[in-house]
Design the sequence.
């Protein structure tokens, strides 16, 4: 049994632990889910479980296999620990490598120097044994080695994933500042949306939220169309990996649409349509070009609206460029708030944004706000429960001096 650490977007730890628990219930899995820590979840299992998590996890960023864990005082302690690991059991001298180090409260002065010491240790071990050393490739390495330092201990990992897991292999076109796929998947889980429920993204951009949801409806695992670092391991056995992929059973295609999207930009609508095709989605996801403040529910009955609103210049794609940015933003969100109150009674609305003052701009009181990070950017997922009668209460309020 190996120990693994699955990093994820900060704030998504509980959602990832829940997802890993579901993966652990699959037939043949020996995966055990352990504790959550800021930025990820610890788990353990066989190497086949690492294959499984890489294939099925929508929220994890990587699957890191622990090679060593020890106390340290200087960079030399870290060098010695890295030198002692049997790297040659996992990959060959012909593979390229990359080393990354992160730290929390480490007393060491330079992470760059620590990174260099780990790289030197790995190369020295290969040179001692084979009189050759692996080359470094920082862009597209065959193997990634990850170090993590806290105040007293050092952990060394071998990355089983390769490219970050949010790179599903389908995205060919993106808009400005696209939402990462694993963050979009985490937001869908946190919102409570499940396949079969109505979902609407009225500011869909390049369609990340819609593509993640549509793949879930169709039963397409997020890792189905890409390669992984573990396929380059010395002892990689293709049979269990192929068996996992053959066990994928796509769901029946829905008879009527439940996922809908729109955007102010026709280019974005076209991009979303293209990305859905690349993601292997084989059923209709109705898309419209329309301003967000003009939208109506795409079908009868309530549903979930989940969107990552644009901000700044993106709001003004077809807006009045003579208006200052703040005034344009305030006008947009004021109109959006009115639309939600008047047209979306019974809906649950989730807006994911870095603008912490968004409820005030919408003139809505959030039912819940949950902190998450989009990279280094602190964001909130605001939930608004658009209860029936909201608009009638708004209209009944006194308006101006004449109502006094």
Sequence:
């Amino acid at each position: 049994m190996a120990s693994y650490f699955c990093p994820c977007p900060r704030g998504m730890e509980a959602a990832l632990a829940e997802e890993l628990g579901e993966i652990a219930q699959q037939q043949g899995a020996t995966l055990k889910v352990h504790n959550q820590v800021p930025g990820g979840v610890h788990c353990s299992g066989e190497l086949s479980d690492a294959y499984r998590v890489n294939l099925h996890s929508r929220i994890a960023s990587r699957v890191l296999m622990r090679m060593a864990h020890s106390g340290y005082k200087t960079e030399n302690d870290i060098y010695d620990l890295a030198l002692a690991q049997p790297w040659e059991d996992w990959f060959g001298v012909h593979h390229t490598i990359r080393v990354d180090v992160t730290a929390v409260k480490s007393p060491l002065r330079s992470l760059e120097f620590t990174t260099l010491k780990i790289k030197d240790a790995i190369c020295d071990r290969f040179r001692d044994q084979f009189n050759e050393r692996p080359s470094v490739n920082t862009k597209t390495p065959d193997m990634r080695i990850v170090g993590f330092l806290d105040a007293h201990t050092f952990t060394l990992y071998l990355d089983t994933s390769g490219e970050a897991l949010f790179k599903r292999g389908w995205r060919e076109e993106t808009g400005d500042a696209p939402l990462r796929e694993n963050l979009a998947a985490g937001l869908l889980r946190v919102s409570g949306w499940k396949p079969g429920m109505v979902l609407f993204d009225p500011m869909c951009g390049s369609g990340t939220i819609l593509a993640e949801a549509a793949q879930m409806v169709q039963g397409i695992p997020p890792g189905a169309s890409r390669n992984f670092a573990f396929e380059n391991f010395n002892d990689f056995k293709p049979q269990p990996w192929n068996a996992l992929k053959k066990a994928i059973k796509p769901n029946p295609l829905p008879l009527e649409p439940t996922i809908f999207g729109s955007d102010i930009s026709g280019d974005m609508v076209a991009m979303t349509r293209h990305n859905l095709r690349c993601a292997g989605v084989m059923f209709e996801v109705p898309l419209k070009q329309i301003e967000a403040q003009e939208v109506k529910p795409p079908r009868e009955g309530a549903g979930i609206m989940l969107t990552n609103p644009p901000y700044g210049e993106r709001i003004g794609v077809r807006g009045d460029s003579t208006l200052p940015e703040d005034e344009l933003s305030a006008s947009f969100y004021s109109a959006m708030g009115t639309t939600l109150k008047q047209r979306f009674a019974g809906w649950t609305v989730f807006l994911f944004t870095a603008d912490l003052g968004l409820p005030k701009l919408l003139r809505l009181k959030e039912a819940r706000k949950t902190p998450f990070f989009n990279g280094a950017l602190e964001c909130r997922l605001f939930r608004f429960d658009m209860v029936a009668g909201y608009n009638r209460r708004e209209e009944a309020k006194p308006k101006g001096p004449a109502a006094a």
Q: What stands out?
A: Confidence is low (pLDDT under 50) at residues 312-319. The first helix runs from residue 13 to 24. The radius of gyration is 24 Å.
